Amino acid sequence: MRATNLYAPTLRQTPADAEILSHQLMLRAGMMRKSANGMYHFLPLGWRTIRKIEQIIREEMDAAGGQEICMPILQPAEYWEESGRWAAYGAEMMRMKDRHGHEYCLGPTHEEMITALVRDEVRSYKQLPLMLYQIQDKFRDERRPRFGLMRSREFIMKDLYSFDKDVEGMNLSYQKMYDAYDAIFTRCGLEFRPVEADNGAIGGAHSHEFTVLTDAGESSIACCTECDYAASDEKAELAPLEAPEEDMQALEKVATPGTNTIDSLVEFLGVPIEKTIKAVAYETESNELVLVFVRGDHDVNEVKVLHQLEGALELRMADEESIRSAGGCPGFMSPIGIKAGTRILVDATVMKMRNAVSGANEVDFHYKNVNPERDFKEVRVADLRLVKDGDPCPRCGAPMKMTRGIEAGQVFTLGTKYSAAMGATFLDEQGKEKPLVMGCYGIGVGRTMAAAIEQHHDENGIIWPPSIAPFEVVVVPIQAKNPEQLRYAETVYEELKTSGVDALLDDRTERAGVKFKDCDLIGYPVRITIGPKTLEEGDIEVKVRKSGEVFHDTKENYLAHVKELLGSL
Ligand code: ATP
Ligand code: MG
Questions:
Q1: What is the per-residue pLDDT across 383-430, written as a single tens digit (0 to 9) for each?
Q2: 527 vs 514: CA distance, rounded Å
Q3: N or C: where does the chain have the smaller number of CB atoms within 10 Å of the terminal CB?
Q4: Ligand nearest to the CA of 217
Q5: DSSP letters along 72-91, please?
Q6: Tell me, what's the pLDDT at 487?
Q7: CA-to-CA distance for 133 and 55, rounded, in angstroms?
Q8: Is 59's pLDDT higher than 70?
């Protein structure tokens, strides 16, 4: 490709509405443009990177036994009604009606579609295992589309679905995908970590998120500082923390005027925050009140709370009226004295506390010497708190560290959730009818591209890992108007192409400084400069974008050197 034929409109200024670096750099490098809120055009350079990431994904999916298919994006509501998700999916689903009034959605994911496809075709255990995937646009009406490709409303996803005859087979398919993901993100040149994750609304037993480590990420993950345990903050399991042994004192109600926050309570009573109990009051979508108690210095993990509430999908803050009607007092809550039948969840660490302080369900009053084990009746105890820096690893007990990252992919076991609901069965070796055992595995292609830029850039622009760079090498004649220089550059460019290097010839007649700036901004891994010194002395300048190193090669050795550099970056 010649730059004079390339549509790559670079920008000198940072567009005002681009919030994060990857988005700014992709716009400035002429790789993408915004169409509407959460929707983007890919321009040629951006699309080349997308296609390279897709190709890596394809190769690894195929190597793991996957077969590529393509399903319709438009999905009939009936399938989603069969699985029960038409109602459950919520506002993120883009719904529409056709001219006959039939309901559809633009696929946010394809479990229902593929289960419907496979149930009509797969009849026997002999057809299993089966892994089918596609790479295609998905639609989600995100509450807050932002950060460019990171969280958009239309985005490209690779989604693979596995079908097995039993749980053992499913776990094997899961492991194959896990290994394939490891290979994909490694080949994309990313620093990442597979982290244990919550399955969320999709259901199933276990899951990992493949998280690209960068401060710009929206995911918060807990990583053990000793072993390889890593989990998303939603998932991280926490064993109850022990409190120092103390004799239980008699419960005492004390006046604590104006102390409706933990901070003010700690200050007023002069007790350590670890001795206080804090309450958060929620309501589910079916208006059930749920009171959650954690230690004063801990936070509630709403995902863990939801797991304790069979069938509940969402939590919102409870209003004061419903708290009062259950016998509670906002700002001064305690499980002691709440109306029987109210849902009370207590974090396991709270149950270990001795002579603690909690509200007294009365304005301006608290209880001292609360001993949950003795005083809390009819409460449900569970791990409910959010992990924080320094919490002990559930595997080895060493302190964990909170790190930020971008979830680029996720793998799930699904079991028979969809096959059982939708009647996708097969006949096993004994001729017995059984539901297929499934797994599903997604990668955000655009999000992976954005994550790569968040991890690989400097003040001058992007620094692409060669495997996903729009071009691996750019050949720049300093004066493209000079026919001899241009001809020399063309031979180098041709030679690179012939030997399999993905090269661009920057044959524009711009000033060299302008071209160099663009090269740095777009982030080609290697730049070859052809100038007067090349013609006079045979010197070929090779510059590495990542390190800034400059080499002076000859016509004889530059090609081998460039290949060696590309392999090592
Ligand atoms: P998130 O928690 O970030 O909303 P998710 O867990 O809902 O993502 P999955 O259903 O696991 O997403 O989808 C598989 C992959 O698709 C994700 O790992 C991510 O890379 C990508 N993805 C999901 N939502 C978006 C989006 N709105 N924009 C871009 N990529 C997305
Ligand atoms: Mg996910």
A1: 999 999 999 999 999 999 999 999 999 999 999 999 999 999 999 999
A2: 14
A3: N
A4: 1
A5: -SEEEHHHHHHHTHHHHSGG
A6: 97
A7: 13
A8: yes
pLDDT tens-digit series, residues 102-124: 999 999 999 999 999 999 899 99
3-state secondary structure 540-564: EEEEECCCCCEEEECCCCHHHHHHH
Give yes or no for a contact between 467 and 189, defined as CB atoms under 8 angstroms apart: yes
CA atoms within 13 A on the CB side of 387: 27
Identify the nearest ligand to the CA of 147 by its number.
Answer: 1
Q: Does ligand 1 have an atom closer than 6 angstroms to the CB of 442? A: yes
Strand partners, 294: 278
The CA-atom distances, in angstroms, between 423 and each of 369, 420, 434, 490 are 56, 5, 9, 62
41, two tokens: 């055009």
Which residues are CB-contacts of 505 (< 8 A; sequence separation ≥ 6)? 1, 2, 3, 474, 475, 489, 490, 493
For the chain, domains (ranges, CATH) are 16-237+402-453 (3.30.930.10), 252-382 (3.90.960.10), 471-568 (3.40.50.800)
Distance of CA 209 from the midpoint of ligand 2 (Å): 7
Q: Locate tokens 């037993």: which residue?
A: 205
Q: Is the CB of 208 under 6 A from ligand 1?
A: no
- End-to-end alpha carbon distance in the chain: 23
Tell me the CB-side half-sphere exposure of residue 120, using CA atoms within 13 A: 5
What pTM, to 2 d.p., does this model score? 0.89
Distance 444 CA to ligand 1 centre (A): 6
Report the nearest-CA residue for atom 14 of ligand 1. Answer: 442
Does the Cβ of 446 fall within 6 Å of ligand 1? Answer: yes
Burial class (CB in 10 A: 0-12, 13-18, 19+), 442: buried
Other CB atoms within 10 Å distance of the CB of residue 270:
6
